[in-house]
Amino acid sequence: MHHAYLFSGPTGVGKYTTALSFAASLNCLERSGEVLEDACGRCTACKRIEAGQHPDVLEIAPSGNFIKIDQIRAIQKAALSPPYEARYRAVIIDQAHAMTEEGANALLKTLEEPSARTLLFLITDQPHRLLDTIISRCQRLRFGALSDEEVARALPDVLEAPVDEALLKVAAGYGEGSLGRAYEVLESGMLEQREELLEAFLAVPADRANQWLETAERFGRGNSDLEAQLDVLIVYFRDLMLAGRADRGRVINADLMATIDKGVERFSLDATLRILDTLTEARGRLKRNVNAQLIVEGVLDQIRQPS
User: Which residues lie across from 142 on neighbouring strands?
Assistant: First the structure.
């Protein structure tokens, strides 16, 4: 085993879960000798690790926007002493790229003088933001995006209630290779609201400014779901582009083909591409805290007058 691992790759593809599983495998009470096996999931150690209650499995995550030096110093202090009860202490640093410069330099000292019974797991989807000296002292494992089939197959295991198989496939498409993102889409209930949302945005006539402003106010004012709604619109217009090119097999909203066919008839390919550009820009502006109603007005204006 290496004393430090760097798990890099897209969000929601299992980096954190793998680190936790590794920690459980190391410390499972049913494991015999030094042979590394899958954790049993039944013993006291496994259950406490899964519940986040094991004293020798520590997680560090950003406090606000950053991982601060005091959090890293807590790791260093823990590494000086042997584990309380486990074979190995596991320290999981989630979003490791969020370390401040002081924190990163402090962690580097720990990586240069590793403890024999402490393993570090650095998790990030932005490895380019880590110091080269930190990366060089870790064993790096790259995680790739999952296929839609893998996501759809795994979703029932993490959902609390059963979901129709057709909706699982739609959620997998929205996840774009991320099980975590697909799970969030399903849990948000946004997939059940797609038709109503699309109808509201597509029904605004080009010559009715009042209806345009009323719809913009409805979706822009105090709307915490606007980012997710923009994602629905982006996927819909991307589906129009695919369906218009006779590539219907790659359409994500496959359960809304009637709505997609109407869109193909209404919007030319050039208009669809212009609307997609507007939606992508709108999502970026929303993250920069631009006024939400102004964002929705711009989107509606482009949809009702795409030329």
Answer: 8
d(CA 296, CA 160): 33
Q: Is 116 exposed, middle or buried (0-12, 13-18, 19+ CB in 10 A)?
A: exposed
- pLDDT at 298 exceeding the cut of 80: yes
Q: Which two tokens stand for residue 174?
A: 């929205």
| Interval 186-207 mean pLDDT | 86
Residue with tokens 């869109």: 263
Where do the structural domains in the chain lie, given as residue ranges?
Answer: 4-142, 146-188, 190-304
Domain topology for 190-304: Zinc Finger, Delta Prime; domain 3 (1.20.272)
Region of 303 on the Ramachandran plot (φ > 0 left; ψ -120 to 50 alpha; else beta): alpha
Beta-carbon contacts of residue 215 (< 8 Å; ≥ 6 apart)? 200, 201, 204, 296, 300
pTM here is: 0.78
The CATH architecture to which 4-142 belongs is 3-Layer(aba) Sandwich (3.40)
Query: Sign of torsion, CA 208 209 212 217?
Result: negative
161: alpha, beta or left? (left if phi > 0; alpha if psi -120 to 50): beta
pLDDT (mean) for 263-287: 92
- 226-267, pLDDT tens digit by residue? 888 999 999 999 999 999 887 888 899 999 999 999 999 999
**Long-range CB contacts (within 8 A, 24+) of 223-226:** 223/292, 225/188, 225/190, 226/286, 226/292, 226/295, 226/296
β-bridge partners, 5: 121, 139
User: How many CB atoms within 10 Å of residue 63?
Assistant: 11
